[in-house]
Design goal:
single chain; Small Protein B, Chain: A; about 160 residues
Length: about 160
């Protein structure tokens, strides 16, 4: 059997709930404008992006809101605030797509994954998502349960 390839990046934080709460559309990879102590704190792997979101301001800049990067323990007076706004680095065309999705189609910019790429740069995978209703979530749960039950029945049968 072929051995699985290891990914070239280290995942720091993963928003597992996003696929349950949103219908995910187009995804983008964005850089982050960080301070030195934030990068060191990210390398310890204790960041959370579960309750965060991104928005486009009037100047055409994208900001990450409510993401928590804890203070670096060995940092001194130059340490950062854990929940400060962080600028996302994207191309103008990508920013225009995000702004159009939010304004016209009523979508949300959802952070999916925070990781270090193969060059050691902190990247954030974001996606345009439309919020699911409660009945949609129940339907997905039923399909998942039926898939598990079906595989159990087939396995027991032979």
């Amino acid at each position: 059997m072929a051995e699985k390839e290891k990914p070239n990046f280290k995942v720091v934080a993963d928003n597992r709930r996003a696929r349950f709460d949103y219908e995910i559309g187009e995804t983008f990879e964005a850089g982050l404008s960080l301070m030195g102590t934030e990068v060191k704190s990210l390398r310890t792997g204790k960041a959370t992006i579960a309750e965060s979101y991104a928005h486009v301001d009037r100047k055409g800049e994208v900001w990450l809101v409510n993401a928590t990067i804890p203070e670096y323990l060995s940092g001194n007076r130059f340490n950062h605030e854990p929940k400060r706004l962080r600028k996302l680095l994207l191309k103008q065309r990508e920013i225009a797509k995000l702004a159009q999705g939010v304004e016209r189609e009523g979508m949300t910019i959802v952070p999916m994954k925070l990781y270090f790429n193969e060059r050691g740069r902190a990247k954030l995978q974001i996606a345009l998502g439309r919020g699911k209703k409660l009945h949609d979530k129940r339907e997905v749960e039923k399909k998942r349960d039926w898939g598990r039950e079906k595989s159990r029945l087939l396995r027991d049968r032979g």
